[in-house]
Each structure stands twice: as structure tokens, then as C-alpha cells.
Design goal:
This protein has helices at residues 5-14, 17-27, 44-50, 77-80, 93-96, 115-123, 137-149, 162-168, 192-197, 202-219, 240-249, 321-330, 380-385, 402-408, and strands spanning 34-37, 56-57, 64-66, 84-86, 105-108, 129-133, 155-158, 173-179, 221-231, 253-256, 265-266, 282-284, 294-301, 340-342, 345-348, 361-364, 366-372, 375-378, 394-397, 420-426, 429-437, 440-443. By secondary structure, it is of the alpha+beta class. The longest helix is centred in the middle third of the chain and has 18 residues, at 202-219.
Length: 453
């Protein structure tokens, strides 16, 4: 990897020589990779006994583990069961700072591809309300897939500009995750293109964009609420200098001290205006911790938070008859919650969510399926959100079963008997649906999710 000369010159001027040498040497090393265990599906003690990978915990992330790339967790059947999310270890840090709970209204404003939403949903135990937004329509598909793969039910996904959301949700959220678009210097080892696209003017361009996005986020923050500002870059302009600017321009915001562990260091006041409050921010350096690098600041807004009434669930509708008939045949109990029909589609939005027609909403909580010719067709997201014990008609493969791999590749399986839907899983964790027909099991595993090798 060729590190840009202007980047090296910049940090040579900022750091003492010994630290600069360590920093540049770390950037030239091997990238660090990790997985985050999905605590909505499996607890950590269970994972420690069933893990097919080495277990080396990430010190700042509950359920975070390092792995060797040759272990290839992205093709393991447990990935298809949504038992973990592949995530760079430094990126696991910011979402936990919000300490999101089951009665919170949470906004993940720049959410794709979904790692922060995943961490928040696990902390919230799939309750409360998350609005997961990204302005880029091309990145929304990955965001939705990751939410559905991990069985997340409490997230609404929107594809809007921060300004547009702020016009609708002013003062609405008590916790906001703001993982900013940035110059991506912490991606140098992970993505060579980030290194090639870097230029000395990029940090200034990003700084202006970040301040504009922050203003929209601030407008949506309730009194007494908290907002995490984070980046995956090293630039002082996008980190300490932006934090100083925020403190000066939003006098009702103040910094909360972030606990530093596992080699995490405080921010550098001397790289900004010298304000010692910047010591409360956190820097994850690749030469100090085992990770690619990150920055985080935790702001709180003055005032008293009055709490959220998440018991109010507007637009309640009874579920369609075909859905009840499907549940009677397939499940031991009918899922509890709010049901909303959109055309032929049945959704279960999280309580606390209010539909706004002017906002481009692409996912409304849990999509259960659709009604076709009076029959209910279950969705993949419905399968991934179910507990294995709640399903009547099912078949679980062992992790090494050849039929499991054939199913994940979209092949037809030789299964006969009573016709109809059947849930398929691995080691008693759902992976999807099949439908037994005269010629065998019709494979309903989504084409975009299938294994290619």
C-alpha cells in the first residue's frame, strides 16, 4: 500500500517522531478483522462452546471477537443463520456509548451498511424504536439485508437526506448515532481505494459536510438526549476541530467522558483550540489498539428528558385471515405486536413509530410476508426473526450436512410428505423457508442471499 505523501507529511508535523514512525508502520501492516455475535439469537456462553472460529474478545465490544481471514466466516452456515455480523473491531465501539435501551427512540442517521444499527438493536433487545437512515439509495439494499439477516424487528429504514428528516422529526429522538461520512483514513489498510482517493483537500470538504449533517441531527435530539459523533478517520479537522466547533455553536450541548479501555486514548486538544474538554473524546489508533482506527465523541443535551411513550401504537389493524391460518399451521403462537397492511404486504412496525407519507420509507419494522390469491406467503425476514422453538413444521441440518449447503445455494432438495411450507435451519437456528411440493422441496432461499461456492 502506498500511503499518500501529503498524508504522511501532515502527521509528521502533528506527531513526535517516535509515534509517527509507529503510526505509519501500523498503517503498512495487515488489516484487522472481527465478528460481532448476534445476542438476539445466541448468548455469549453458548457461542464460546459452539464457535467454529478462535475466540479472542475485542476488549471494548460486548460480543466482539477477532478472527483470522482464512477462517472465512462469510461463507459459514452460521453467517446465513444470522448468528454474527462481520465488522471491523474499531467500528464496534461507538454504538455502545449510547447505552440504548428498550424504551428509547434511536436514530442511526448515516446507517449503511448497518453495523451501528445492529449493535443498537442488540443493546435494545429488539425493542424500542430505531430509525435507520441512509441518503444513498445504492447502500440501502445492504442495510436492509443486514437488518433482516440478523432478525432485527424494531428498525424502520428510510432513504432520506438529514435535512428532510429533521423537518419531520424535530426533537423526536433521545439517542442519536452519527457515524459520519468522512475522509476514511481509517480504511487505508482495509480498502486500498480509500488510500488512492485521498487528497489533502478532502478533509476540508468533509468537515463542511459533517457540520451540516450535525445541525440536522441536533434538531432531532430531544432535551436530555445524547448523540454520538464518530468517524473512521484520523484527521483533526473532522474530529477534535469539529467537536470544538460544535461546543461553540451549540451551547446547550456538553461532552460526556468516554471510558477508555484496551489501548483507547483521549482526543488531542492541541490539535484543535486547546480545550481540555476534548480529553473526554476517544481515539482508537491502529498503533495503539488492535483495529483499523476510529474517533468518537459523546454529547449530551441540557434539559430534562421526559421519556418516551412507546405503548402508543397507531394504525393498528387486525392481521389478515390468511396470515392467521398460516400461523395456526406453522407456529405454536401468533406473533404479538401491531399489524399494518400496505397493499398486499403485511408489516409489524415497532411501537412508537408514526408513519410520515412525505418520508421515503423502505422498510417498516418486520416485513412478515404478502397475501397472494388468498394465501399467505411468508418473507425471509419473518423466518430470520423467529425462534426455532416457536415453529411447528421444521427441519434442522447439522452444520456439515451437504443438503444444507445445497439449500443455501438455491438447489431443490428431495423432501416429500405433507405439502406446504417448512422452516429450515442449522443446528436449530432458522435460515429460511422451503415448500414441499410433488417434485420435492421448492427452495425459497432468496436469490440475493445464496452461496455461490
Amino acid at each position: 500500500m502506498r500511503i499518500p505523501a501529503d498524508f504522511k507529511k501532515k502527521f509528521q508535523n502533528l506527531m513526535v517522531r517516535s509515534e509517527y514512525d509507529e503510526f505509519i508502520s501500523a498503517l503498512s501492516g495487515e488489516r484487522i478483522t472481527g465478528i460481532r455475535i448476534n445476542r438476539l439469537k445466541v448468548n455469549l456462553s453458548e457461542w464460546s462452546s459452539m464457535s467454529p472460529f478462535r475466540i479472542e474478545p475485542v476488549p471494548w465490544a460486548d460480543g466482539g471477537y477477532y478472527f483470522d481471514e482464512q477462517e472465512r466466516p462469510g461463507i459459514h452456515p452460521y453467517y446465513h443463520a444470522g448468528l454474527y455480523y462481520i465488522q471491523e473491531p474499531s467500528a464496534m465501539f461507538p454504538s455502545g456509548l449510547l447505552e440504548a435501551g428498550s424504551d428509547d427512540r434511536v436514530l442511526d442517521l448515516c446507517a449503511a451498511p448497518g453495523g451501528k444499527t445492529v449493535g443498537l438493536a442488540m443493546d435494545m433487545r429488539n425493542k424500542g424504536f430505531i430509525l435507520s437512515n441512509d441518503v444513498n439509495p445504492k447502500r440501502i439494499k445492504a442495510l436492509i439485508k443486514n437488518i433482516e439477516l440478523l432478525g432485527i424487528c424494531n428498525a424502520v429504514v428510510t432513504n432520506e437526506s438529514p435535512e428532510r428528516l429533521a423537518s419531520v422529526y424535530e426533537g423526536f429522538f433521545n439517542k442519536i448515532m452519527l457515524d459520519m461520512p468522512c475522509s476514511g483514513e481509517g480504511m487505508f489498510r482495509k480498502d486500498p481505494e480509500a488510500c488512492k482517493s485521498w487528497n489533502r483537500y478532502k478533509t476540508e470538504e468533509m468537515q463542511g459536510m459533517q457540520r451540516k449533517i450535525f445541525d440536522s441531527a441536533y434538531r432531532m435530539l430531544a432535551p436530555g438526549g445524547m448523540i454520538v459523533y464518530s468517524t473512521c478517520t484520523f484527521s483533526p479537522e473532522e474530529n477534535e476541530q469539529n467537536v470544538s466547533w460544535i461546543l461553540k455553536n451549540y451551547p446547550d450541548l456538553y461532552l460526556k467522558d468516554i471510558n477508555k479501555t484496551g489501548g483507547i486514548e483521549p482526543g488531542r486538544p492541541d490539535w484543535s483550540d486547546g480545550n481540555t474538554e476534548l480529553l473526554k473524546t476517544a481515539r482508537l489508533w491502529p498503533h495503539k489498539i488492535k483495529g483499523e482506527g476510529h474517533f468518537a465523541a459523546l454529547f449530551a443535551k441540557q434539559g430534562i428528558y421526559k421519556g418516551n411513550d412507546l405503548t402508543d401504537c397507531p394504525h393498528k389493524e387486525p392481521p389478515v385471515k390468511s396470515f392467521l391460518e398460516f400461523c395456526e399451521g406453522m407456529l405454536h403462537t401468533i406473533p404479538s405486536g401491531v399489524y399494518v397492511m400496505r397493499g398486499a404486504e403485511l408489516h409489524m412496525p415497532p411501537c412508537g413509530y408514526v408513519d410520515h407519507p412525505d418520508i421515503k420509507t423502505v422498510k417498516t419494522g418486520l416485513y412478515l410476508g404478502c397475501e397472494t390469491h388468498g394465501k399467505f406467503e411468508p418473507s425471509q425476514s419473518f423466518a430470520m426473526a423467529l425462534e426455532w422453538s416457536s415453529i411447528k413444521r421444521k427441519e434442522s441440518f447439522s452444520v456439515n450436512d451437504g443438503d444444507l449447503i445445497r439449500y443455501l445455494k438455491g438447489e431443490t432438495l428431495p423432501r416429500f410428505g405433507e405439502k406446504g411450507y417448512i422452516a429450515l435451519g442449522v443446528e436449530s437456528y432458522p435460515v429460511g423457508w422451503g415448500k414441499i411440493e410433488e417434485n420435492g422441496l421448492k427452495n425459497l432461499y432468496p436469490k440475493g442471499w445464496r452461496r455461490t461456492r
